[in-house]
UniProtKB/TrEMBL annotation:
GTP 2 binds at residues 205-212, 252-256, 317-320. This is GTPase Der. Belongs to the TRAFAC class TrmE-Era-EngA-EngB-Septin-like GTPase superfamily. EngA (Der) GTPase family. PROSITE patterns: G_ENGA. It comes from Streptomyces jeddahensis. GTP 1 binds at residues 30-37, 77-81, 139-142. NCBIfam families: GTPase_EngA, PRK03003.1, small_GTP. Residues 24-187, 199-372 form the EngA-type G domain.
Amino acid sequence: AAEEGFDIEDVEGAIEAAGHGPLPVLAVIGRPNVGKSTLVNRIIGRREAVVEDKPGVTRDRVTYEAEWAGRRFKVVDTGGWEQDVLGIDASVAAQAEYAIEAADAVVFVVDSTVGATDTDEAVVRLLRKAGKPVVLCANKVDGPSGEADAAALWSLGLGEPHPVSALHGRGTGDMLDAVLEALPEAPAQTFGTAVGGPRRIALIGRPNVGKSSLLNKVANEERVVVNELAGTTRDPVDEIIELGGKTWKFVDTAGIRKRVHLQQGADYYASLRTAAAVEKAEVAVVLIDASETISVQDQRIVTMAVEAGRALVLAYNKWDTLDEERRYYLEREIETELGQVAWAPRVNVSARTGRHMEKLVPAIETALEGWETRVPTGRLNAFLGELVASHPHPIRGGKQPRILFGTQAGTKPPRFVLFASGFIEHGYRRFVERRLREEFGFEGTPIHISVRVRE
Ligand code: GDP
Ligand code: GDP
């Protein structure tokens, strides 16, 4: 490294920064209008205010990356959910349940100018049951005169209330320090304690693609599906299923089984549920209704899994209904709409007839294998050396930026750091990724490539 002009500390720092595993997840919960979205904006340092969103306008983005005091984590924003047909208490409770389930730690926001309400007390009971670390945010303490209101929230029994003004930023630093103390370094539930346990699968997809049918099929049981309201029954959230001679954990299946018909906020609710499932899983099986045109919503769900860095399998369902013409157009659509995930293993299934169910497990295993692949540094650099020699970067401004060496900083998904003598263009990075895939496989996994340029 030194002879290539990189300081060894630079190199080590870059590898460490790129090699981080999955980030721990912080959920921000609370009643409507207590200031959750304002607080999330503050935490992630976002300029545009989500609070300006019009009521009823659905947001599909619910998780964001944030950094405080050099530590990175994800924030789940539950502020986008309008009160719906379930009524305020049930909505807050259901929303909080999903968010708590997906989180490693929780910020519970209370409006200190209002004080603790019955709904807040109900959320406290949920939090107790979940046993996750909680930081209590006493929001809307815009000045010293609000401190007494904040102190009154000791009564919730959640420990010290942190007086904060999400609007003006007052107290948020101290609160974030407490958040970092509460957050584990890595998301324990997915990658720490679960090592050696069953692999975790998130079965996701837009409504009516056949998730519930597929789950029934693989679980080999017929369930009676009724119109239940969220919160009226407590299904087990995860389901252990034997498949292909192995045990798998399908995460967050409660949301699949419950037929919740919400009016307002239904899309948002579905997004939150999908995000929660993806966070808890190692591999996402995205179910797509092959009988219908691939939609933006399908693409968003695929993107969610890719951005979360999970292994990915695409399952095209309802294959039993396809005629020749539809099959022709489907292939065209897959090329144009899902071309960016052409690396994902694909299965054409029918949850109704059971067609190709046996292909699901091999596809999942392939994806997990790609996700965990580690390329030895020697092999990687031999590959990079040949690549750079045979396909050099285009000359720019009389100079030719060159990839000097590289290393794989992490897995799950594979993360690479490349060290270069100058700026490496986007097109060339894509080319490197393509060649990496050709050479080493990485079927079913996103790969991250970061480039460090010599000063
Ligand atoms: P959410 O529904 O919990 O996401 O709440 P929002 O973030 O949308 O905030 C609800 C309202 O409270 C908005 O009008 C905010 O401007 C206001 N608000 C949020 N935080 C504060 C604060 O710290 N002080 C004051 N005075 N108002 C706030
Ligand atoms: P979910 O909302 O994704 O859980 O979808 P469901 O499992 O409730 O399925 C929605 C509808 O599609 C139901 O009427 C199912 O019977 C039907 N369906 C699911 N899978 C298949 C399939 O493979 N073939 C056909 N023809 N219909 C299916």
